[in-house]
Amino acid sequence: MLSWIRPSARLSFFHSKDNKLLLTKKSGESGVKQQVALADVCRAATPAKCHLNPLLFNGHLQTAWTTVKFDDVPVYYKRRMFEADSSMYKGQFAVDFVVEPYETPKDNAEATDKARRYTLPSGLPERTSFLSEEEFQALPSDDTKPMLVLLHGLSGGSHEIYLRHVLAPLIADGNWEACVVNSRGCSQTKISTGVLYNARATWDVRQTVKWLRKAFPNRPLFGIGFSLGANILANYLGEEGDACQLKAAVLCASPWNLEVSSTNLQKTWLGLEVYSKTMGSSMKRLFEQHVEEVSKNPRIDVEAVRNTKYLHEFDRALQCATWGYPTEGAYYRDAASIDSMLAIRIPFFTVQAEDDPIASVDALPFQEMTQTPYGVMLTTSWGGHLGWFEIGGDRWFVKPVTNFLNTMAKEIDLGTPFIVEHPEKLPGHIANHFDLSKDPDTAPKPDFDPMRRKLAMKMVQ
């Protein structure tokens, strides 16, 4: 009876068994520094039980509940518009910095962007206003607080409740700083070119991290991405490789293999007529908000975009036309992060639900996780897409995520290099099982590059 009242999801961990990533813990009173494996850190960060709301007893109900509008997690932001430094991806984007609660200045034209220079006519999201130039100039600091960079999901923004659920416990004691990188055109921002974002648009997060590194030279930087934002973040981490400025990252409900996730959505009535149609509609609304600018793009057929119904049709009409992909499948294969994760060279923790109807279990990197020491994947048998709702409305996934981030920031010596137990086993290295009965290994040695892309674009400046 109790198991029905408080049902528990199955927890599973996937990681390399024979090639650990060893982290160094900060020295205690004895002054002795101990090593701990990344997998052990992730396991310790995860509660032993995943008790979810029994009324939301499958992934569809958990996912549906995310659309219920309740707002009990107030997070306040001050916004800054950045002009892109990428020659390939010009335009502007918004970064929202988490700040202490404040009274929204309704009569301050600069704070509210009354002239709507950067903001859509409907105005800024709740609890968000613009930094004054004086406030922005005062932002840089030499403090050593950990700082979290967040990337939201498809057509979302800093206002998303799942994002605020993670932020709230981290900023509650004042020990963390944070900012959200809003994708082009999201979170009520105007675009200044005819191009929106895509699933591998890493330029803005790269520019933001560079700016943060310069403005806050002593802060350890961390990253977290949700859904499509997790896919973008994984691509960014892979592109940066050994040069990555983040100390660790979390990926939540990532679709990973975009083509598989898209194909699975199209296989069922619910997948096609509910999830794909809903996401397609949200992207069409975003498109219409910016149609004046996007329609100036000579590659875009506005009516073709308007005539789409499902997400894959929208991507075919807009993303393929914008970026030159022949099909949405080619776009999905090129923008997927399932190979990119093999190039990541910082510790990362990913949390997925096996009954997620959007980020399909078939698209998860089960095999890939066993080949890299840098990542650990936690899956739950139940949770939906960014759901994991418990009785009372809290989200269970917040616990392992925030526990991991706090452990990395407070207990791990981030100044000591991480140690790969067997570097010769890293992805890209070719195993050699030589013995006297075998021929010498004289075969060509291919160069496996998980970041090799079909679309040639200058990603790193």
From TrEMBL:
Q: Which reaction does it catalyse?
A: an aliphatic alcohol + acetyl-CoA = an acetyl ester + CoA
Question: Could you tell me the keywords of this UniProt record?
Answer: Hydrolase, Transferase
SUPFAM superfamilies from the UniProt entry: alpha/beta-Hydrolases
Give an example GO biological process. Answer: medium-chain fatty acid catabolic process
Enzyme Commission number(s) from the entry: 2.3.1.84
- InterPro entries recorded for this chain? AB_hydrolase_1, AB_hydrolase_4_sf, AB_hydrolase_fold
Q: Which Pfam families does this one have?
A: Abhydrolase_1
- List the Gene Ontology MF annotations in alphabetical order: acetylesterase activity; alcohol O-acetyltransferase activity; monoacylglycerol lipase activity
Q: Where is the AB hydrolase-1 domain?
A: 146-364
Q: Which PANTHER family match?
A: ABHYDROLASE DOMAIN-CONTAINING PROTEIN, ALPHA_BETA HYDROLASE 1, ISOFORM A
What does the record give as the function of this protein? Displays enzymatic activity both for medium-chain fatty acid (MCFA) ethyl ester synthesis and hydrolysis (esterase activity). MCFA are toxic for yeast and this enzyme could thus be involved in their detoxification by esterification.
Q: Which family does it belong to?
A: Belongs to the AB hydrolase superfamily. AB hydrolase 4 family.
Indicate what this protein is called per its UniProt record.
Answer: alcohol O-acetyltransferase
Q: Identify the taxonomic lineage of the organism of origin.
A: Eukaryota, Fungi, Dikarya, Ascomycota, Pezizomycotina
